[in-house]
User: Fold LysR family transcriptional regulator from Lachnotalea glycerini.
Amino acid sequence: MTIKHMKIFIQVYRTQNITKAAELLHMTQPAVTRAIQEIESYYGICLFERIRRRLFATESAHLFYSKSLHIIDVFDTMEMEMRNGDKFGVIRIGASVTLGNYFLPQLVSRFQKQYEDLSIKVIITNGVNLQKKLLDNELDIALIEGRVGSEELHTEQVGTDHLILVTPPRHPLLEKQKIKLEDIMDYPILLREKGSTSRALLDNYFEMRDLQISPMWESTSTQAIVRAVSYGIGISFLPKQLVNVDIENGIISTKDIVDADFTRQHYIVWHNNKFLTDAIRKFIDLCKE
Assistant:
């Protein structure tokens, strides 16, 4: 018993004629007759009585018709959803804090206009957590700044950004004609938590320069660090995109460090074995624009 058997039966039931059903189904008359016989044999029933070269549906046929309609409807719905699975269902997207605040909202907004029936779930966390979730198949794709460590993850660059020195207004460093990296070592430093991509970049950079930093303040929140800097608690390095408004409003200040460049790359990341639906590929293309 197959779905094809049911579809053949439905046409025969509706037309009450083997020849007409065969024409509608683009099948031969013997093939249609054989399908009906196979159903009757399978269930041990009679579907049609053949009287004076005409077919008359039996009570078993009426019951089988109503059940077959329901099964075919469910099957066709499943077929449509499976073949258009990227227009339904859920895409799980992760982003690190900078990209989740600055880059991701406009991407999701544009994407949802094209895939209105598709649900999008977003997680914003640090880079280490995002990589773990990709490896554990808890995310489909992620936007991450900086280096991705696992060889099981595929990365494609989609942009860059910069970490800049931020200080309270009227800080002594701002009075220097040129600030060098070693100059900041005399002041309390406030940084993102271990595991964040910005923290990893800074730790590696300072280690390469044989400078040891021990932050007096660590936070998962960029805004918490901005507020702390604005109150004169210390200095920090934060993504330029996230603090531009605070600098323009005079809440914090900045100045270039002449011997350091904290540029980092943005990547769209997914597992090497991840099946990419058309919708996910479209989102990746949006990220690259």
Remarks:
- The chain has a mean pLDDT of 89.
